[in-house]
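(Fold this chain)
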Amino acid sequence: MKQIKVLLILIPLLIIITSCQDSRNPKSTSYEIVYAASESGKWEIYLTNIEDTSKVKITNPSKSGGGYLAWSPDGKRIAFYGKYDNKKTWSIHTINSDGTNWKRLTHADAKWDSSPTWSPDGKKIAFARFYKDSTGMGNNEIWIMNSDGSLQTQIKSLSGGGPCFTPDGRIVFYSEYKDKKSEISIADIDGSNLIQLTNNDVEDWHPEVSPDGTQIAYVSKKGNQEIHSMNIDGSNQKRLTSSDIHVSHPSWSPDGSQLIFQSITETDDNWSIYIMNKDGSSVKKIINNGASAEWLKKRK
């Protein structure tokens, strides 16, 4: 009987303790947005929800943080770029969403690796590489590697940057032409079947494909940088934003109905994150002092 009485006392206590532990466990929070901020004077990576009511920092000053953030398809890892050698070298990294397993994947000296993007199955990462050769000529290349950093290979038939995978495994990117304009293009993962989607007198870059693969949001610059959208075949191109200075880095919501993006105005000291409907309506700031935000596409 004494043992039964002890158990009757201990069981409620264990339930209370377990409940308290679960309430402190960061895994119980639904983090939908990853973004970069320099609150500590150095760029670091943060997670938050869409209301920005629960924020957590997953990097620290002893490790390289950075921008051009990209969720893995399963939401467990984040790819990004960090800078070394007094900003002369940019490298691609990955980190688990809980801040563990920080890993540097590329190590090419005096080259700028950026814009990582995960393949739909999460097994590969494509990225952009820029560098100047011995003659001072700038080179914009697109590379692909396994998600652990192995088998790094240049897609030699593609020249440009800002790659983004479509759900069916093609690559959308900005390509450069002889007149130095940048246009949005799409190609197969091996660089074949290249199709130019935009053709205008402005600079177009940073394409982001909608989760269903039917639309592309991208940045276009003629004076200010503004976000535009178009169908995956290049049709129905339209401007979505009208900013005081610059906007960039669009990212789709999981259902494709909204976009988040970064913007800076004449009254802001730092980039901030905004949200809007996919037609450009209902623009609202959601995060102060944030950049390179990406919305997790994985449905929970």
